Amino acid sequence: METKDQKKHRKKNSGPKAEKKKKRHLQDLQLGDEEDARKRNPKAFAVQSAVRMARSFHRTQDLKTKKHHIPVVDRTPLEPPPIVVVVMGPPKVGKSTLIQCLIRNFTRQKLTEIRGPVTIVSGKKRRLTIIECGCDINMMIDLAKVADLVLMLIDASFGFEMETFEFLNICQVHGFPKIMGVLTHLDSFKYNKQLKKAKKRLKHRFWTEVYPGAKLFYLSGMVHGEYQNQEIHNLGRFITVMKFRPLTWQTSHPYILADRMEDLTNPEDIRTNAKCDRKVSLYGYLRGAHLKNKSQIHMPGVGDFAVSDISFLPDPCALPEQQKKRCLNEKEKLVYAPLSGVGGVLYDKDAVYVDLGGSHGFQEPDEASPTHELVQSLISTHSTIDAKMASSRVTLFSDSKPLGSEDIDNQGLWMPKEEKQVDLKTGRVRRKAIFGDEEDESGDSDPEDDEEMPEGDRMENSSSDETEEEEDAEVTSKVYMADKGAKRQRLEMEEDSEIDLPAFADSDDDLERSSGDEGEEEEADESSEEEGSDAEERDNLEPKTIGKGSKSGLLHSNGLSDRLNLEKTMKKAALTTSDSGHCTAEEAFASEDESEGSSSLSTEEKDSEDEALVRKKFPKPSQAVSGQKRASESLIDETSDIEDLLKEEEEYKEASNYSTETSGALKWKEDLSRKAAEAFLRQQQATPNLQKLIYGTVTEDNEEEDEAGEELGGLFRVSQPARECKYKADSLDCSRFHLEVPHDWDLEEVMDSIRDCFVTGKWEEDKDAAKILAEDEELYGDFEDLETGDVHKGASGLDTQTEDVEEEIKEEIDSSAEESAKKKHLDKKRKLKEMFDAEYDEGESTYFDDLKGEMHRQAQMRLKKHRWYKKILKSRDPIIFSVGWRRFQTIPLYYIEDHNGRQRLLKYTPQHMHCGAAFWGPITPQGTGFLAVQFVDGTTPDFRIAATGIVLDLDKSIKIVKKLKLTGFPYKIFKNTSFIKGMFNSALEVAKFEGAVIRTVSGIRGQIKKALRAPEGAFRATFEDKLLMSDIVFMRTWYPVSIPAFYNPVTSLLKPVGEKDTWSGMRTTGQLRLAHRVKLKPNKDSLYKPIVRQKKHFNSLHIPKALQKALPFKTKPKTQAKAGKIPKDRRRPAVIREPHERKVLALLDALSTVHSQKMKKAKEQRHLHNKEHFKAKQKEEEEKLKRQKDLRKKLFRIQGQKEKRNQKSSLKGPKEQLK
Amino acid sequence: MATPAHSLSYAGCNFLRQRLVLSTLSGRPVKIRKIRARDDNPGLRDFEASFIRLLDKITNGSRIEINQTGTTLYYQPGLLYGGSVEHDCSVLRGIGYYLESLLCLAPFMKHPLRIVLRGVTNDQVDPSVDVLKTTALPVLKQFGIDGESLELKIVRRGMPPGGGGEVIFSCPIRKVLKPIQLTDPGKIKRIRGMAYSVRVSPQMANRIVDSARSILNKFIPDIYIYTDHMKGINSGKSPGFGLSLVAETINGTFLGAELTSNPQGQGVAVLPEDLGRNCAKLLLEEIYRGGCVDSTNQSLALLFMTLGQQDVSKVLLGPLSPYTIFAAFEELFPDYV
After folding, report:
1. Model ipTM over 0.90
2. Most buried of A143, A847, A1038, A1093 (most Cβ within 10 A)?
3. Which pTM was predicted?
4. How far is CA A623 from CA A309, A466, A576, A605, in A?
């Protein structure tokens, strides 16, 4: 609207940019200068080789096609939920600091303590939910699944840490979110070169992990404990402009990152029974697909639950409404982080902390996040009434009531505004009118219908505030939700406040009365577990209820804003009747107590007439606000009330009818109803019962009634006659469409009605052959004909237009219906107990049975042990899988498929190969990635991800077999036949294996023939050769193994604070043995013993004589005959000397010894002498040489001098030159 | 809290097929209670039991629990497996009863389904095999489930009460369904039909043809009604005759109608002339209703649209049949996961 007065953009005519642009422009026109080499030198670019040309062309095309992605349908709503930014990194890397800096950058607010996700508005169209991810593997897995963007912090001074790689691996398995690396601790580098090197190294490693060119941010250093502003600003810019490719898993599954949680269980119940069923509501933005009410949900780390109720809540952190301006103003930079106590109330175990909203506290009353408003109101109760009156309408009524009721007022205050707003809306009014029409029209025919419609209507409007509707009924405008911006509404509200007030006064009275009634009810029916008026009193004391009240306040205050964003509340409501009321026919009914409670509540309205029914809506919200119920509950309540009414008064049947209908009505139905209503206006009345058919209370009626009779039991067992309805529950199941009143096709006019359906009939103007021909012939044909044709056409065009408009309106209405918030509970079936309880598993169908029923499937996956994981995995060792949203422990069997398709069990996973894994667990679509970790507790320096893979199949008929060899021994051997014993135990067993192939260890193949009578189990077998008695016969068989049915969700989040990473499930046998110090007794046979080898004795080689003879001499054994004894005659006699001779000999000996000694000495001396002489000689020689050298030197010097002199004397001329 | 929250709970046996089929497709277990609980003859009928057996045959790992009286059924679907199957249908209902559900399931099997169904091919309650062949198979083709293996062959005709018919149905499997855009049914260009007679005079068929033509000729000349007189073992066990008509538009929409004589020994004898005329009128009625999918196959088309690509499919339907209303709005949308 305000665009008109904006200045037009003026083109730049000078400067480098303008020049560049001009150049480009010229080039576009092909008038460019001759800079282009291709043009300047065309020969250089001529085609040299056609083959190469083709190749290069192919290559470029290949590269191009590689870049192509399958187009992804963008299903993000107009106002998408915040983007989940996970800040991840090893400890002490600066995650919290970064988050703080980012928040400060975006919102100018400083959060000191960050707990849980923080949602901020980062731009005109973008919100961020920033969450920190620690090093607990559970947390890493869960966050990787929901992350849109991962800021991966890396300590540059240290390098990559295991957590980083683990996280990357988790991401790879669960769909790769956008990952941006952030290098911190860069200031620890002293030298610039070192820094550069480190950056480059880390960058390239990061690229190999993510993708080449992945963005890596550098945070150079800290200033006053914070990162540098400019860097953070740049990072923020990057985050805000980043585009995301939707991930298949995330877009096809609804999920919620809960940013707030409330335990709504009665504290008394918890006190008395610590393991009681809890009622918990969770709040968060819904992401991914649509989430349906009553659907099964999984909370990672907690378990599987059914949603008790879901409702829309106004956006606590809404985007700014005006898109026109350039940037956000301060007021629009919202932060919402309930877990850290920002944007509202901080819930602790035993206290509630109220946040004042930091520096922007001033803006609270009108445009800050609703929580602020609430907070403000809470605070303001301490001021005087007058002050309150003056200051805000919110607190106007708070004086009259305790804290909780203040919210009621609040609610009351807000609602009419919306109403007003609504009144302006024409569309809504129209809708109302429709129903009125319908009532008129169908009123006489069957009374159910007219009851139905308004009720359905209410359901549609539904949601947070019923009081509005009550007002609506009075004002005859059903609509309360404005489709255009909330701003206007607010303005209007301010204007109309005075006008509205009286209306509130009325409603207030109502409120009081109703609450009073309630109190009475409470007294009367003590057994009922509903919290009564005393609950209101309790409100003041109990933080939790205050929280609830605040919640409702939040809701109502935000009721104005039509932001679509959905908050989901999940509550586990063991007590609330609402569930029973709200159940569709398909849903199980709640316990009887609850319905009792509801009935007691409803008794007050029992006597009242139809208006009372309408009015009922009003008091209920009050209760809700007073802390006992949510508005939606109350709404549900009233349906159940109506049921009760029905039980007591037969005449109220119709009412019950519509109640059941509303109870059965889900969101889509409401839309449908509205659509259908529109259709009524627009379309013919020919199919008046179509709508009725669609909403047909029909089968549901029947069922609910039946169930009510059954379930209520006890006090309120009312047997009701089966009501006739259009479709009986046991009607014929036939798809044929029988018409009760067929047309009379003999009549001409009836026949004419379809005549144009045939090719022989009349065609449309533009298709009729005759017409087209005629038009062709005479271009300026009959004027009148054409005119009428034109007119007709125009009319039809108009028709379609109006239809379009109507459709648009309808859509608007639908969207508003979606917006219309609805409160809800989560009714958790049971709570997983901390420890296994024997009595827990008793009875016919327990929770675990249900669980089993849900997860009955066996899944097969292709698995590969992670190459960085140090151990191999063992079959039948429990392992924790992360598949889909779930983390669970199960016992897999590893197998490998043989070439004949047999799935053979493996004891261990192969080292570097894929293998199959079969386990028993939840159903997950095929093609889903998974990862396995062995333990989630404790910390190990090693890589924690044990295996990764993909789900292949969900086949239940998979047969994993293991090899079983049966052995036997022959006890009688004929030629090729042997009798074998010891393989079987009975003839029957043998009979089963007749004809089976057997084999001996030595490889002789054979076949089992027939059993023998004795010994038992022996049989006759034939072989291809004769056996030996020492042979062992064996038969290979395959024995099917069953997959252990073990599924244990990792309930790490149920652990108390601080021990969340200590969850340990089933332990492996190895661990158990270690813990109990049980030593495995190994089979003695399989032990390794020292190998004792006998000395091998070889016999001498014996060559037969004949052979020896034949051999050539060379090779003949040459055995020399041993020297025989010398015969006596040839033996020389011993010489015996005379004493004298002996003396002489001795002397001679001595003399010769002396002589030899002398000689030896002399020789030594000579040798020594020679040595010395040689030395002396050498010395002399050296001296001589030296002398000669000196002499020569002298000589040469003299010679040189002489020459010099000669030169000098001969070259007189150059002398001056030299000088 | 006795019922598992995950499983859906119903009461009464109406729309049993739809519930079981959707349960199988979505993988959610269902519990159906109070099946004819107030009936003199409570519990599941033979034909329903037969249907459940059929489901068991084409799936892998289904768990079916039926209580003593047959009033409660718990069905935990398994994997749609397919393969070659034979099934003896109950003669209480036509083969169409079974075939309709098979049409919904067959494209999503693990192995292509090839099934032999034995029983009653044409009866007064269920859409006959002829009509399904001429109207439902084109719907499947619209969704890209076509090819040579999509076949529905009537080997033998069997009329109630004796039965004895045999039908071979085979269907290829598809990973994804083609989205459809059927908003203009177009004009009817021809009418075809099949007048069959078994164990009665072959002349009956001719008489039917004549009478039917007498009505339809007023609208369009291109009418051809085949006569099919089966003999011997192919004629089943009971006498009977009937007519099925189908009108084809220029845009490939098929609208069908059919009528069958009263089973032997039940009701009064029907004149073939009356039958022909009435059947022609039924066809006219169907044409009057219009739509790009005829009333029998509305739910099939809607189911496939739901299972196909999101947002893109569009179909124009005539007035919704009660069966469709249930199938589409009560079952398909709220609980389809």
Report:
1. no
2. A143
3. 0.58
4. 18, 12, 13, 15
